[in-house]
């Protein structure tokens, strides 16, 4: 079976490569000619562990190819996946569906035989039906069915998430579409992955509900961690103590500087807008969104407090710029709020990230980026750990201390232990854990 995937970003490229690994013929399409040129030359435009090998193996086997030419890609395709971006619309926070609708129109013109059109992008409830309307209007003779197949992969572990997902959600309403989708996901069905068939609307909502719930869970533990600070309790133990309850679960109970990334911020906002539109506001999601916005700025106050109340004239080394480790994605990273605010308050910033500097530079061109973590920390008044990259977990603390002007370390990911940092003589602060005496 052949499929086409429209949009070759974090989701489209991974999905296309994984479907080709399942054995299907996959053509990945992007309107960004530069990206397609890179892919054709064997270069992966994003950082995602092991994606290069997966792409290379499947290109070599002749199952995976890249093009800007949609008509060519669609010839003989049983399914076309729309995996284009759905960012927040400027001004009102609704999902911007411009790219989805543009893709739908182009696809419509090229439908020759029966094709299943699948939205893999995260799209608000009702989008699948609107896409069907666009296709019918553009090409009344087109034989097609819609399916909604939201993607749950996480950047940084995207291939494993795609190959071994907790579940697959497929919204579709005809036997013909179900048959195509079932065949595509047969390799996962064989490893007993739960596959949920639902209506289009339900599948669309599942994705937003899942992301909003996870965002809420993160915000909950962040608030509990603030409370721990005030009450002298330890958030690590609280997380473990509540997470061992099977009804709660231990994941997403790590305090941090606020969630970011390409999904949670825009998806919580979009769900909030959808709910308001039908006069049924989701107060829990609204509270999550505003708390998370405020939290990033609170982190700046924490850094200032660690420096005695003011950051004016202080050299602060930032370790980690991306919103999480193992990705170069900078979209809505907390660093994009925290660093400019530190600068606005008079700090001098030096920053390091193992893979995110190139992306970060596009957003914050004027920062002193250093390629080496120790170089970043040399002569600093404070070090702030913003992203929990593995390479920051095993720093040579003795060396760090001698390099810095003053041994102030603010760990916004709780990757070190207060007692070990005290033993090294650091003035160490973290989230929701008592300082060692
Ligand atoms: P992205 O910005 O990395 O990639 C989108 C790609 O689509 C870009 O390369 C762009 O050039 C291309 N594109 C846009 N319009 C096009 C068109 N008409 N024809 C061909 N190509 C076109 O986006 P992403 O992070 O891969 O996200 C895609 C969707 O998947 C979003 O809806 C997102 O919410 C969802 N999603 C993302 C993740 C994630 O971790 N990034 C996880 C799950 C779901």
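Sequence proposed for the structure above (437 residues):
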């Amino acid at each position: 079976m052949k499929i086409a995937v429209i949009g070759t970003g974090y989701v489209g490229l991974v999905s296309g490569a994984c479907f080709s690994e399942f054995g299907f013929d996959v053509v990945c399409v992007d309107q960004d000619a530069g990206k397609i040129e890179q892919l054709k030359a064997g270069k992966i435009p994003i950082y995602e562990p092991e994606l290069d090998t997966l792409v290379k193996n499947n290109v070599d086997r002749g199952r995976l190819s890249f093009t800007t030419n949609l008509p060519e890609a669609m010839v003989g395709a049983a399914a076309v996946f729309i995996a284009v971006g759905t960012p927040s619309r400027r001004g009102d926070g609704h999902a911007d569906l411009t790219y989805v609708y543009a893709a739908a129109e182009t696809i419509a013109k090229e439908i020759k035989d029966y094709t299943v059109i699948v939205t893999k992008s995260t799209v608000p409830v009702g989008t699948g039906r609107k896409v069907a309307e666009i296709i019918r209007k553009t090409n009344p003779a087109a034989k097609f069915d819609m399916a909604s197949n939201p993607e749950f992969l996480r950047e940084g572990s995207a291939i494993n998430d795609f190959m071994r997902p907790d579940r697959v959600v497929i919204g579709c309403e005809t036997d013909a579409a179900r048959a195509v989708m079932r065949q595509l996901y047969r390799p996962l069905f064989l490893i007993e992955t739960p596959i949920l068939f639902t209506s289009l609307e339900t599948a669309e909502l599942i994705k937003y509900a899942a992301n909003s719930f996870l965002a809420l869970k993160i915000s909950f533990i962040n608030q509990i961690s603030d409370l721990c600070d005030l009450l002298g309790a330890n958030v690590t133990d609280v997380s473990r103590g509540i997470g061992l309850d099977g009804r709660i679960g231990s994941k997403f109970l790590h305090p941090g500087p606020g969630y970011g990334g390409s999904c949670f911020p825009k998806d919580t906002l979009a769900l909030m807008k959808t709910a308001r539109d039908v006069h049924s506001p989701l107060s829990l999601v609204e509270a999550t969104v505003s708390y998370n916005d405020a939290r990033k700025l609170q982190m700046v106050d924490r850094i200032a407090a660690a420096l005695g109340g003011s950051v004016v004239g202080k050299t602060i080394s930032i370790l980690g710029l991306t919103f999480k480790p193992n990705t170069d994605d900078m979209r809505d990273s907390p660093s994009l709020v925290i660093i400019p605010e530190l600068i606005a308050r008079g700090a001098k910033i030096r920053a390091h990230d193992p893979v995110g500097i190139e992306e970060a530079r596009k957003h914050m061109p004027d920062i002193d980026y250093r390629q080496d973590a120790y170089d970043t920390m040399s002569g600093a008044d404070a070090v702030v750990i913003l992203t929990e990259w593995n390479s920051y977990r095993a720093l040579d603390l003795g060396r760090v201390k001698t390099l810095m002007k003053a041994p102030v370390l603010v760990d916004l990911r709780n990757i070190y232990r207060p007692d070990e940092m005290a033993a090294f003589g650091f003035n160490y602060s973290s989230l929701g854990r008592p300082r060692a005496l």
